[in-house]
Amino acid sequence: MIGIALAQLGMAGQVFVGLVFLVASWSKLRDMAGFEGNVSAYGLLPARLVPMAARMLAFVELLIGLLLLSGMEAAWHQAAAMALLLAFAMAMAINIGRGRRMIGCGCQLSTASVPLGWHLVARNVALSLLLACSFAGPAPNHWLIVSNAIMAGILLFLLYVLHEVMLGWRRSRLYAQPSGSGDD
């Protein structure tokens, strides 16, 4: 029973992460020069590899997002999504450890720059754990369970987008205020 519930949670996570990957890759593909700047700012790749790596990351993210939403019961695309999320978390953690927080994460759903923080590392680890639930048991096959999981994934995504919009609004207000105004 717990295995079925975890598998349903994993399916909801698959829909949620698939939507996040699709929208994030679309944002990167729309502003490839900006994303190349983000990849370069991480300082983990030689400058000559940055353009190719940025393009490859955006297309891999798009492909994994499509595969997660396809409904195929292949574990490799869930594992690939988990690996990509954990690689992004590691890249962020390395830069936070270096004291380089004021670079854009390159992971947002908008074009606004989001500085690095441990909350982003934790978010990626949590998304990986959510996908790991898919491996807890057999994939749900009853239409009601599957439709509930799909709707839960869509709802999670909409709540996540709302959260990002609210944080972006808050960030823009904080950065727009003159320093020392105390209006916070």
From TrEMBL:
Purpose: May be specifically involved in the processing, transport, and/or maturation of the MADH beta-subunit.
Predominant location: membrane
One example of a Gene Ontology biological process annotation: methylamine metabolic process
Domain of life: Bacteria
Keyword Translocase: no
Keywords: Membrane, Transmembrane, Transmembrane helix
The name this protein goes by in its record: Methylamine utilization protein MauE
Residue stretches making up the Methylamine utilisation protein MauE domain: 9-133
Pathway given in the UniProt record: One-carbon metabolism; methylamine degradation
Pfam (any one): MauE
Organism whose genome encodes this protein: Sphingomonas oleivorans
Spans traversing the lipid bilayer: 6-26, 47-69, 75-96, 116-137, 143-162
InterPro entries: Methylamine_util_MauE
Subcellular localization, as worded in the UniProt entry: Membrane
Membrane topology (UniProt): Multi-pass membrane protein
Any single Gene Ontology cellular-component annotation: membrane
